Amino acid sequence: MTRYGMVIDTKKCIGCHVCAMACKTENNLPNDVWWNRIFTDNGGEMGFDMVGGSYPDNLQFGYIPVACQHCENPACVKVCPVGATYKDPETGVVRQDYDKCIGCRMCMSACPYNGVRSFNWEEPVFHMDYAMGSKDAPEHQQHVVEKCTFCYHRTSQGIEPACMHLCVGRARFWGDLDDPTSEVSRLLAERSHKRLLEDRGTEPSTYYLV
Amino acid sequence: MSEYMQGGALASDDLDFSASSDRGRASEHASTAVKSPALNVAIGVSAVVMVVGLVLWFMQLSGGMVQTAMRNLDSWGLYITGFMFFVGLSAGGLIISSVPKALGIRGFGGISKVAVFSSIACTVVAIGLVVVDMGQPFRVWELFVYSNLGSPLMWDIIVLSTYLILSCVYLWAQIQAERGKVSAVALRVISVIALVTAVLVHSVTAWIFSLQQGHEMWHTALLAPWFVSSALVCGTALVMAVVIGLRRAGYLNVEQDNIVRLAKLLGAFVLVDLYFFGCDLLTEGFPGGAGAEVVAMLTQGPLAPYFWFEIIGCVACAVICLTPALRRNGLLVTASLLAIAGIFCKRVQLLVGGFQITNLADMAPAVNSMSITYADGTLADAYANLVYWPTPLEAGVTLGVVALGFLVFFLGLKFLPLRPSEK
C-alpha cells in the first residue's frame, strides 16, 4: 500500500521560509493563514527567528518546518463527527472536505501539533485581487477548518508538493514510505531521524533528519 | 418501597406523608396558569435578552467568528466552557428527582417536577451553546447523515438529545402519574433510565476532552467521574437555590427539613469534588515535567484567580452546608451560589488551561492575528497572560442563550403544573 511521507533534512534547512511562501501561493491561502510554518528551534524562551540558550557556550539555533504531519494514526480523523477530515485510502494522506466541515473545531483541539490546522475565522481576505497558485487547489470558505493537503492536487498527479519544489536548500523529500526503494525510505535507512511528539502515539509520516 | 408500590402514594414525589396537608393547600390552584406580574416581567426580560443574543449571533455568522476571541491556538472559548457548565448544571435536577424514585427512598418534598424542569432548561442552554459555537450551523443535518459514530462529539450529541427527550418524558410521566394515568412501576422504570442517562451525559461530555492525547491537562481517566461529581455539586446547589427562592416567592411550600437534607447532600458532593481535584493535582504534579507545569499554571499562573476562587468558595460552601448552626436560608443560598460559581471557575480552568500550555513549546513559531488572541507581541507574551478572554460579542451571545434557558424555565413555571400537587 502507498503511504506518502515527507522527510525534511534539518541540517540543510536554512530557515528562509520559502516553503511557507510556496505553500501560501500554491494554495492561494487567505491573509494570516499559513499551513506550513517554520518554527525556530531555540528552546522556546526567545521569540521567533532568535537564538536561544545562553551566551557564549550554550547557544541553540535551528529551524523546524511544521505542517500537518499526516499521521498514520491521526487524532483528528477519529474525533470528526461527520468525517469531514479523513485518511485517503490510496495515499495515506489526511485530507479535509471543506464542503462537509461543520466548523466544530474538534479536530483542532484533538491534534497534538498545535496550530497546524487553521480555521477561517472570517470570510477569506486576500492580499491580491486575483487568485494565486494552482487552479486545482480547493477554494477557501469561511468558518471551516483547513490545513496542509500534502498538495493533493499535485501529488495525485505524481508531481512533488509545492514546498518541496521551491525549497532552496533542497532539504525536503517526498515519496512512498512503504516502498523500501523510494528516496525517503533510503534516507530514513541511512540517516538518524526524529518525529515530533512521538510519545502521543500518532505515528506521523513527517520525518526530520538530524 | 412496598408503600411506594401500593396505590395511595403512587403519585407522590417521595414517601413523606406528614406534610401532605401543606402541599394539598399549595396545590389548590396548581392546575391553572400562574398569574404573577413578577413572573410576566421575568418572561419579558428573558425574551428581550434572548432576541438581543440572536441578533448578535447573526452578526457573528455574517461578520465571521473573527469577532470572537477564539483563534487557532485557543480554538474553543466561552461557548464550550458554558456548554460544559450547563451540562453539569442540568444534572442536579434530574438526579435529585430520580434517585429517590429509582431507589424507592425518601425524596425531597415535592420539588421533583421543578427540579426536572430546571434540568430541561439547562440542557436547552447547553445545546444552544454548542450550536452558536459551530462555524456552519446550517450543516447540522450532516451529523445525522454522515455520522462518524467513533467521535466522542457524536456520542455526546446522541446522549444529550436522548437526555433532553427523556427529561421531558420523565416530567410528563410525573404529571400523568399524579393524575393516575401512569403507573408507579412505569414511573420507576423511567426514573432508572433517566438516572443512567444523566450519569452517561456527564461522562461523555468529559470524554470529549479526556480522550484527547494532545492536552496533558485533559488526558486523564479521572475526568469522567470528576465531571459527574462537579455536576452533582452545581446541580444540587441550583436546585437548592431555586427551591429556596421559589418558596420565598410563595410558588411552592417545602419544609425546612428537606432543604437541610439537600444542604447535607451538597456538602458531601462538594467534598468529593475537592477530593478528586486534590487527587488530580497530586498525580499531575508529582512526577514533575509537563504535569507540574499544569499545577503551577493553576496555583500561581494566569489561572490562579479561578483556582483559588473555586477552592475557597467550595470549602466555604461545605462549611456552611455541614455546620448545623449555619444552615440558615440566606447562607444556604450563598453557599449554593458559591458552589455554582466555583464549578464555573473550574470549567474555565479546564478549558482555557487546556489551550494555555502548548505541546511544541520548545520551539518558537511566527504568530499572527489568526493564531492567537494576543498576537501583538511574541508567543511568550501571549502566554504570559491568559491566551483567551471573551469579546463583548461572545459574552452577549452566551447571555442570549442563557436567557433562552431562563425563558423556558419561567414559561414552565407559568404554564406547567410544576407545583407539588399530591393529595
TrEMBL record, chain A:
One of its GO terms (molecular function) is 4 iron, 4 sulfur cluster binding. The keyword Iron applies. PROSITE patterns: 4FE4S_FER_1, 4FE4S_FER_2. The keyword Protease does not apply. InterPro entries: 4Fe4S_Fe-S-bd, 4Fe4S_Fe_S_CS, ET_IronSulfur_Cluster-Binding. Residues 4-33, 59-90, 92-122 form the 4Fe-4S ferredoxin-type domain. SUPFAM superfamilies: 4Fe-4S ferredoxins (SSF54862). Pfam families: Fer4, Fer4_11. Keywords: 4Fe-4S, Iron, Iron-sulfur, Metal-binding. PANTHER family: PROTEIN NRFC (PTHR43177), PROTEIN NRFC HOMOLOG (PTHR43177:SF3). This is 4Fe-4S dicluster domain-containing protein. It comes from Adlercreutzia rubneri.
Automatic annotation (TrEMBL), chain B:
The chain crosses the membrane at residues 38-58, 78-99, 111-132, 152-173, 185-209, 221-244, 265-283, 303-323, 330-350, 395-416. It is found in: Cell membrane. The keyword Transmembrane helix applies. The keyword Chloroplast does not apply. Pfam families: NrfD. Keywords: Cell membrane, Membrane, Transmembrane, Transmembrane helix. It comes from the Bacteria. Its main location: membrane. Gene3D superfamilies: Formate dehydrogenase/DMSO reductase domain (1.20.1630.10). GO terms for cellular component: plasma membrane. It is a multi-pass membrane protein. Belongs to the NrfD family. PANTHER family: PROTEIN NRFD (PTHR34856). This is Polysulfide reductase.
